[in-house]
Amino acid sequence: MSLLGIDLGGTKLASAIFTEAGELHAKEVIPLNDQSGIAVGKLITDQVKKYLLSEKFNIKSIGISIPGISHDDGTVWAPNIDGWENYPLLDEVKLVATDVPVSIDSDRACSMLGEMWHGKAKGTRDAIFLAVGTGIGAGILINGQILRGSNDIAGAVGWMALQRPFAEKYTGCGCFEYYASGEGIVRLAREVLDGKPHYKGELRYLDPSSLTAHTIFQAYHLKDDVAVSVIKQCIEFWGMAAANLISIFNPEKIIFGGGVFGPAEKFIAAIHQEAKKWAQPISMKQVRFEKSTLHGDAAVYGAAFLALENLNRHEGK
Amino acid sequence: MSLLGIDLGGTKLASAIFTEAGELHAKEVIPLNDQSGIAVGKLITDQVKKYLLSEKFNIKSIGISIPGISHDDGTVWAPNIDGWENYPLLDEVKLVATDVPVSIDSDRACSMLGEMWHGKAKGTRDAIFLAVGTGIGAGILINGQILRGSNDIAGAVGWMALQRPFAEKYTGCGCFEYYASGEGIVRLAREVLDGKPHYKGELRYLDPSSLTAHTIFQAYHLKDDVAVSVIKQCIEFWGMAAANLISIFNPEKIIFGGGVFGPAEKFIAAIHQEAKKWAQPISMKQVRFEKSTLHGDAAVYGAAFLALENLNRHEGK
């Protein structure tokens, strides 16, 4: 028997087939290509239909990770997908899944579930998955339970206030995310470059016309001044944010994941050093910093684990 | 039957008798007068003996709130009391309490328990008690359970990093506490005054030789420039910290308590306004800001509630 895990991101849809033991069998990634509203819903239901019809797999349960909030009534809210304010995703998927159970949860919760099932949070009771990608969010495990908050939007750590005074530019994404997300890294580099018009010609490694987090990390390793200053500032923000989570939660582990960790993996020791300056010293001594080893698949693993848990509930296990 | 609640602070010891229903009958406060080590332990056991011997009360259970960490083995760690690294408080109190059950918890946990029993957290599942006094800490309620962390030091929010870059002066208390605790308010005013030696004579309302949080609040209301700038900066820090807790926890309520709220109560609306700039907007809409109505007694209420819960466990209720 198989589990279908689906991870909807802001720019792509990942689907994967897992065994009950958490072995990943087949994974497929489809770009969203700026589609929105029911078109995105159809992408998901088409994937579900395809895998359910396939004779290769015997899918017994489906789990879906969404970049936003999953409501109890089966509707979801995803701020980065137009038309997904109260989108009836559960009903749509149930219609095509017929008697196969379907469950939905946020990417914050799913990433943590994935790490608990087959990643770095296995066997821990108190851990934080800090996801730094296009945006920033966290899956937070407390005494073995995922932190939900009163309306299931806990973990919105990208909104952390880390730099006084407030600036209008933080509106819409939050201060921490503004500076230290994948988009933030590009934004910061652009800000620095805008302030240095004369610097343009000297930039051997950083092309202002095609800035991405990736090119900035490359330029950092070639010792480009702008890239070095931008990454140094990011390390400061990541360290402060990690410190705050350590002082507040006293966790066993902080697991760094998302697209940026990735290339920022090599800075984890420097982030630890920065965090150490700020955090409650006893909690700091007790925490371990680790990199997710699920290679960006934490949420799709978690979606499959969600499916497994839902199946077990259905079967009264 | 009665419950004895004891709240050890950094400078004083409060004891109070409660009914099972949470009615406060008698309260007594003893200053520590810089005593440390076993002298503080003796203050507590003397109180316990006195109340147990009193014919007026029929004490069935004892709860103690301590400003630090309560370990499973009954020892406690209180950073502000010399000689209390691994102090065997539970054993000492049990010796005098004989067959009356004794339980100990941190002031962060006790304050939240007090608010749940008879304060503003009654009936809530997700709330934060932000205690701003000499220091800063938080009691955090998640889905009806108190956040402990992997080693029971969760809630050390005074260590929150809110102001880049790191400064050596934050070591020992944390950035947020450095600026916005009762001591921080005095420190800030002193920093401003040190930078304005010529300003000395003009200070009609603020006497640099006898600065306290209290005199600074008074001077604020008399529109003293230094006091106004200091309090405005504190509002900014309190707002940022509240915003971070809102974005991270998505709580129903933030309850402001401790000695500073108190006089800072009238700034709660301004703190809300500042937090609104920073916090995740949906969580911000859902949260309510309230002032503790237990008048600094949240921890002693909580200690008594701890005693009640322990008694119920003993009696198998």
Using DSSP, what is the number of strands of chain A? Answer: 12
The sequence of SSEs of chain A as H and E is: EEEHEEEHEHEEEHHHHEHHEH
Share of helix among residues of chain A?
25-40%
Per DSSP, what share of the residues of chain A sits in E-state strands of 2 or more residues? 15-25%
Largest interface, C-beta closer than 8 angstroms, per-chain residues? A-B, 52 and 52 residues
Could you tell me the mean pLDDT of chain A?
93
Rg measurement of chain A, Å: 20 Å
Subunit organisation of the chains: homodimer
Strand order across the largest sheet of chain A: 3-2-1-4-7
Distance between the termini of chain A: 16 Å
- Principal-axis shape of chain A: globular
Judged by helices, strands and strand pairing, the structural class of chain A is alpha/beta
Task: Describe the 3D structure.
Two copies of one chain form a homodimer. Chain A has 317 residues and is an alpha/beta fold. Chain A contains ten helices and twelve strands. Chain A has a five-stranded mixed β-sheet with strand order 3-2-1-4-7. In chain A, a hairpin with a 4-residue loop joins strand 2 (12-19) and strand 3 (24-31). In chain A, helix 5 (182-194) crosses helix 7 (225-249) and helix 7 packs across helix 8 (268-278). The longest helix of chain A is centred in the last third of the chain and has 25 residues, at 225-249. Chain A is globular, with a radius of gyration of 20 Å.
